[in-house]
Design goal:
Layout lengths: L4 H15 L3 E5 L4 E4 L10 H9 L3 E3 L13 E8 L2 E9 L2 H4 L3 H35 L7 H10 L7 E7 L12 H18 L7 E6 L2 E7 L7 H19 L4 E4 L9 H13 L7 E3 L5 H6 L3 H12 L6 H12 L4 H8 L3 H15 L6 H18 L3
Parallel strand pairs: 9-10
Antiparallel strand pairs: 1-2, 1-5, 3-4, 4-5, 6-8, 6-9, 7-8
Helix pairs in contact: 4-5, 10-14, 11-12, 11-13, 12-13
Amino acid sequence: MELLTGLAHRIVEEVTEIVREEVIVVDHTGIIVAASDKKRIGSFHEGAKIAIDTKQQYIIRRKDVPHLKGVKAGLNLPIMIAGSAVGVIGITGEPSKVIQFGQLIQRMTELIIKEAYSSELLDSKHRGYETFVYEWVNIQDLDYEFKERGEILGIRIKQPRCCVLIDIYAHSVDSEKEDEAKVGTLDQAVTDYLRSCFSDASQDFVVPWGAGRFMILKDMTQFEKDDSALNRELMEVNAQIERQFYLRPQAGVGTTVTIPEELRRSYQEAKRAISAKAHPESVVFYSSLSLELALAEISTMTRERVVEKVIGPILNEKDLLETLVVFLKQNLKLKPTAEVLHIHINTLHYRLKRVGELTGKSVKDTEDIVSLYMAVHFYKGWHNEE
């Protein structure tokens, strides 16, 4: 194990705050890699090299300074990791004054290094998962080497699985996504949160997918025949994200596959499910979609034309548009619609009549209702309304 320069500088900063003395960090070859006095960086420190070789603290008194290369009076403490001296933390000053800090500083430095390397190992592990999962859902042929790499990473690829995509900006406006630095920090916080949510299941893997999306490679061994249990779990996760981060996420869930080569299909299904943004539920299963899938295939240009042609005349008539949306949502039932809108039933009749007059579409004609539904569906998709 070698001391990284960035970590060495962090150690100097944190130790200096405690001892208020000049501090150096020396690597395993005796070269100063970080110091309070920047001029000393890169020079050889003979006292530190002795501490490394003996694995013992080495005190340098004023009388010793002329006889050792690159030293000042002070205390040199070996940094011990797994029985090896990986470097030295040195404190300059009168030995009788700085020796009292010795054990504390040595222990603190070793803890900083262990924490940093543990974090680096964890990051490296997650990067391995990310690369593997990304390849898995984007390639068609899984060769022996690929499957073996999965086993090395601890991913049992023969488990029944499904892909879940969570979009934390599913119901957000574009202005909320403009600050890239804020978005990056938020994405990392959500990544950490999601990993904590699924940490109890060793075969669940959370991968940041970019642009506010997250992939959950879900082990379906316990959920294979029970979508309701998975639905409850994901709804709770989404609810927590909403409470903690003030976002309104949506999850798209692909079907469960038992053959590794079919995971790509589950991923494509999760993408289609999450694209059904007009869907009111926070968790959308691909298996529950029918009309939404057909409508999703219609081009943006065609959608715009349908909206303009069918409900264009009432887009600026807020009361009429709201009435139509609620009427469709209440399955064309008059009484529930009036109750939701808090209006008299006669007022509702009048508004629906005006909708018909302005659009040329009758709410009593099946074909016209289909046209109105499609237009409202496309309109809500643009405006993220429920």
